[in-house]
Amino acid sequence: MAANIKDVARLSGYSVSAVSQVLNDMPGARLSAAAREKITACAAKLAYRPHPMALALRRRRGYVVTLILPDLSNPSFLDVAEGVQETLEAQGYEAMIQHCGRDPAREQALLTQAVERRTEGAVVLAMNEAKHYREYARRIPLVCLSGIRKTGIGSRIDSVAYDLAEGFYKAADHLIELGHRRIGLLNRSFDRLLVSRRMDGYAKALQKHGIEVEKQMIFEIDGFSTQAGYEFGRDHLDFLRGLTALLVYNDIMAIGLMKAIREAGIKVPDDISIIGCDGIIWGEYSDPPLTTISLPRRTAGQEAARMLLRRIQGHIDKSKGNEVILQTPLIIRNSCKRFGKQMMRYK
What we know:
Elements: H1 5-12, H2 16-23, H3 33-45, H4 52-59, E1 64-69, H5 75-89, E2 94-99, H6 104-116, E3 121-125, H7 134-137, E4 142-145, E5 158-162, H8 164-177, E6 183-188, H9 192-208, E7 218-221, H10 226-235, H11 237-241, E8 245-248, H12 251-263, E9 273-278, E10 291-294, H13 297-312, E11 323-326, E12 330-331
Helix pairs in contact: 1-2, 1-3, 5-13, 8-9, 10-12
């Protein structure tokens, strides 16, 4: 069983009241530094952690943080949630997980709710530009995860971002090194900030090698799921037959796409090479295993939670936002191969 405050009192030799005053940093406690040190050491030895509800009652604070996800269908978001949750729980906080269904109005309503309920703060997998979050960041500690950059003095918006531009640059560069020149990009018509980062990296790699960025090789769809990828592959075979390689917005879309083109008799990677983005576990077991731009999702959740806690505890300059940018390595599997004569029928 988990240790409670009475166990700490028994081990330290001090009263429950004294132990409570020290562990909860309550004002007016008349205890020596040596006594405080002993109580703290005993609490650590017993791995004592205060219960969030008990803290709420004693301090009249909720110790609850709102975590807003775009949806629950993509396993990458659940990895982020795990990182946030475990980091908050270690500090006696709880994460209230909600999702907005990728609806900006719903996201706004959930943020308003977080403010009105006086939660300690919020982490949101942001779908919009910084201006959409500034008003909330003035009212509660707020961390945006996934895209916002350079929030600037006065914004107070902290952010954790994946270096998507660099990730898509490395992916496109890898395909070019394999001899591909007709490389497409399947992007989304939503999430404009994240879409542009993918496009920036893709275009940079092509331009580096003197390859023209052709509009007809870039396709945007209003979808993000495995089904969306499948339907695109089923309905746009002519587009795919004009390519030798394709970068896809995320892994789950790429997996759905590969199923559709396999049913159409197009082989991956013999006829077309495919690269996804996220690094989800499903990609290891797809047919073939998917080459992907890996996003450190659990690490991102941990970083976002740590940043939020620093903001809550007053350890961050209130006049400006701060950012952490995470690297995005390329994981090479079997969905890509060197361009060869066997692919010429799709030229």
